[in-house]
Amino acid sequence: MRALILADIHSNLEALNAVLDDAVTHGGFDQIWCLGDTVGYGPDPSACLELVQHYPLLAVAGNHDYAAVGKMSTDDFNYAAKAAALWTTSQLSEVDAGFLGELPLTAIAEPFTLVHGSLRDPLEEYLLDQQAAQATLDLLSSRFCLVGHSHYPFLCLENEGSPQFVQFTEDAVYSLGEERWIINPGCVGQPRDRDPRSSYAIYDSQQMTVQRHRVSYDIPQTQEKMRQAGLPQYLIERLNHGI
Ligand code: ZN
């Protein structure tokens, strides 16, 4: 079984389509594991929700998913995120809203646990330092944990009891062993590691490997749709820079 691991699609249909096509050239996939924030920021919330549901799908909630259906307050969102959340809400069908509202905070596909932020704060914590990683490892009941939310790809290995962040190098093959890992595949729809290309990972259960890939997409097309939707200029501009 091969799982396509996607985080933070953020209503970016061009990015999602590019990733789905690119994944086929890298051996294909049998199902999608979606780590939350399928909507928010971008111009195609409904189309992205429909597209991921074309495949066998295991998905968890992100803060933007719940905010779009009023299950989470946007008080902590900055002005651009709040404006995008309001716009997203106005675009969702009843079916879309029902799907987002029913997403669980965590899901298990052995040997992985899927969560958007972290296990101690599934919707809002950015897991980016050793202390946050340790807190998640303390709560982890499976061997591996998949996270999104920071839009920043990494591997975090439990090394002699303490978590260690290492580069999740593009196209390298990583063998999964006995030690526990936290893995962020990077972001599909709004990368923030200064590389504007979409990032995603593929898990192969026969080989017991994980690989991360990157693919360019038609950024100007997404930006034009965002302009027509009246989404904030800052959100449009940042896609050029991967920030
Ligand atoms: Zn996000």
- Overall, the morphology is globular
Succession of helices and strands: EHEHEHHHEEHEEEEEEEHH
Beta content comes to 15-25%
Q: Kindly state the number of beta strands.
A: 12
- The name of the CATH architecture is 4-Layer Sandwich
Distance between the termini: 33 Å
CATH level 1 class label? Alpha Beta
CATH homologous superfamily designation: Metallo-dependent phosphatases
Q: Whole-number average pLDDT?
A: 97
- What compounds sit in this structure? zinc ion
Number of helices: 8
What name does the CATH topology carry? Purple Acid Phosphatase, chain A, domain 2
**Mind describing the biggest β-sheet?**
6 strands, mixed
The radius of gyration over CA amounts to: 17 Å
Quaternary organisation: single chain
Considering the chains and any ligands shown, give keywords for the structure.
243 residues; alpha/beta; Purple Acid Phosphatase, chain A, domain 2; 6-stranded mixed sheet; 8 helices; 23% strand; globular; binds zinc ion
List the helices and strands and how they pair.
Blueprint: E1 2-6, H1 13-25, E2 31-34, H2 45-52, E3 57-59, H3 63-68, H4 79-91, H5 94-101, E4 106-109, E5 112-115, H6 130-139, E6 144-146, E7 154-159, E8 162-166, E9 173-175, E10 181-184, E11 198-204, E12 209-215, H7 219-229, H8 233-241
Bound molecules: zinc ion (ZN).
The site of zinc ion (ZN) has 7 residues, from loops.
